[in-house]
Design goal:
alpha/beta, 7% strand
Amino acid sequence: MSGGSVEVSVVLPAYNEEATIENTVETTLDTLASFLPSDSFEVIVAEDGCDDRTPEIADRMAEQDSRVRHFHSDERLGRGGALNHAFEAAHGETLVYFDTDLATDMSHLEELVESVRSGDYAFATGSRWMPENVADRPAKRDLASRGFNGLTRLFLRSDLRDHQCGFKAFDRTALFDVLSNVEDKHWFWDTELLVRAQRKGYRIKEFSVDWTPKGDTKVDLVRDVFGMGSQIGRCWWEFSVEPRITRRVSMAVGVLMTVVAVLLMGKYLPMESVLTQMSKANPVLVGIAALVYIVSWPLRGVRYKDILEELGFTETTQFLTGAIFISQTGNLVFPARAGDAVRAYVVKARRGIPYPSGFASLAIERVFDLLTITVLAGTVLLGLTVTGQAADIVQAITGAEQREAARTAVFVAAGVGGAAIAAVGVIVASARSDRNFVREVVTKVSSDSYADYVASLIERFTGDVQTVASDKEAFVRVGASSLAIWSLDVLTAILVLIAFPGVSLDPVTLVAVGFFAVSVGNLAKVLPLSPGGVGLYEAAFTVFVAGLTSISWPVALGAAILDHAVKNIVTLIGGVASMFSLNVSLTQAVEEGSEMSVESETPSSLDD
């Protein structure tokens, strides 16, 4: 059929519907023909990666009737994804979809179509929860539906009663205006679409329909309801919280959190004792720690140079080290990790490297930081378990009578370590191969939208690694430099820790605890609550050192403060010197870099 005469396009999302699809299509054609000219509509079977005879049946029907079209996908797109794909190819100005089980009485189809086709409404949806006609549903589905719709109305301020009824019509222009912002591709697609349409001011008709449940629902009442609940949270954050988090608010909250943390530390922690312990620290060892940390900075420049060369840009290690110094100084001075965007500005303003390449290189660097931490953590856990050191450490903390509990905790930790190393192996294998191992593994566990979202995030990691992994030598160099950088970071902390009198741990325990304390401290800094993560790093470091060893809380806190101070002082000195050397204004760099970062997302900083 020519698309020029089609006014109404009905899309039937289908997944393994071989038993019902033919009857559904025929019923749809007959119903549409009862109130529309026979050449003014089309029926599209949006077949979503079926593994039964649905594609074969749909192909046959399309050959026999020009009003029927079939769109096939080799992989699961999710209900929302399949609908998006079909709507884009539809010819009509009025777009319709309903569930293929025909749970909604087809006598309502004319009202649905004409509500939009007439121009009175931009969206129309059937409802099973109108006061005059509440659908009779099985108890478990009734409770889940009432709860979900209630939460949607409460948190997303929707005026509708039933967001998930699979019986909807849309004006084509209005649909695509709203659809451009809809993120979900599975069951939450309907709800997000209707909520966003309301927020844009479109008129929506919700009318009562006769609805009869047909067979078992394809919604997993635990997995999908939980996933849809998390999507409500995502939309609530986007609509109600995110718009209020301006730069001024972020800075104010960051400063306030820092002040409150300092006041609480002064009230509830033995700060006099902490300061006394810090004054006793061996200045020679602290000085050596600072020198060790300084050595790590040229390595950062070398690593960044290797990454940029893979993107097609060649720069000197000296310049790139300076750019990193400036960006990390920005993170120390401004809250919310505003300095992350500074580096992209510096390399663009001083060397002409495009912003997208600058942000991409930063993302790659962060991914290697995360991979390095994960591998080292897993290796330390496994190593301590194999050598028996882990059991001794846990037993020393819990007491001799808890030997069995200690052994259990150690084996669990070893399992986590092995899983972490295996996860990194899958990511690297995917980056080095044409096969998508990440999605294969995730989809074996679950195929819902939340799992798909997780897989997409990991795929972004994989894509960043792949940029470097395509060159084996470059991959090895970047991996080795990342390992060296983090090893020097840990060594700095260890030297500061042993500079305090009375700290006497065996080397294996010292290295293990030092690594975990630094790792957890840096992960805590991901939260954008204070400039440079001041307070967050110290708290995480202290809890880990004091909790896993016999070192007292005042000594652990003193070591955490001194360790972070040494690293921050080195960073500030290097940053100020680099700003003078490269003639860069930090304030201007933060402002211009942050504007560009809105268009190019980068992972959170883990650097000190």
